[in-house]
Amino acid sequence: MSRLVRAGILGGAALGLYAAVLRRRQLLWGAMPDEADGELPGDRLVSDADLISTRCIDIDADPREVWPWIAQMGQGRAGLYTYDALENLLGCDMHNADRIVPEWQGIEVGDTFRLHPEIGLTVAEVRPGEALVLLGAVPAGGTKGQAPYSFSWAFVLRDGVAGGTRLIVRERYGYTRWWAPLLVEPVEAVSFVMTQKMLRGIRDRAEGMAGSELVA
């Protein structure tokens, strides 16, 4: 058996393992069955989704204490609480905040939630203390062109079973071009890494200031 054939077999086996096990785990990281299958705010904006991720984390803070960290997110605001050094390599000019900034707390339907100075999503739904839903897509050509999919991104806060907050983040992609999966699947793998960091970043910040008078 040639090296090329062996490499092909190993590559195929790796892809099969990813498709069968790892892909599902990363799409549903931290999610309970009812959270993975249940309807969340924003789901109907991309009703016929081809790819859905639901990722969750427990936070030892009240939802009203978690909400300010979500309300102020975005480029030009508090950042995304992820790896801003990596984001800035792509020109995002992202800077993560470690405090609640009062002037960034206002967020309304129709506002632009920026991911990059030239790329943003539209705020589609705001329920203070409960949910923030964004709608849009990143163009295939970066800052130019049209995305081959529709996209919604929801941040949902629920009371935790044992107190605190259950933070759920859901992404929904609806493909509009046959080749959209070729773009979305690699992006979603990166999104898994970034979302883990973001969820932990929100958790650590909220828990660090839980009960503080700075939280309105």
Write a short abstract of this structure.
This protein has 216 residues and is of the alpha+beta class. It has helices at residues 3-27, 33-37, 63-71, 84-89, 180-208; strands at residues 51-59, 112-116, 119-127, 131-136, 149-159, 165-175. It is 34% helix and 24% strand.
| Average pLDDT reading | 88
Give a short account of the largest sheet.
6 strands, antiparallel
> In one word, what is the shape?
globular
Our count of domains comes out at: 2
Q: The CATH topology of the largest domain, please?
A: Alpha-D-Glucose-1,6-Bisphosphate, Chain A, domain 4
Low-pLDDT runs: 4-18
Biggest β-sheet: strands ordered side by side in the sheet: 1-6-5-4-3-2
- Helix content, binned percent: 25-40%
Q: What is the H level of CATH, i.e. the homologous superfamily of the largest domain?
A: START domain
Number of helices: 5
How far apart lie the N and C ends? 67 Å
Q: Report the β-strand fraction as a percent range.
A: 15-25%
The CATH architecture category of the largest domain equals 2-Layer Sandwich
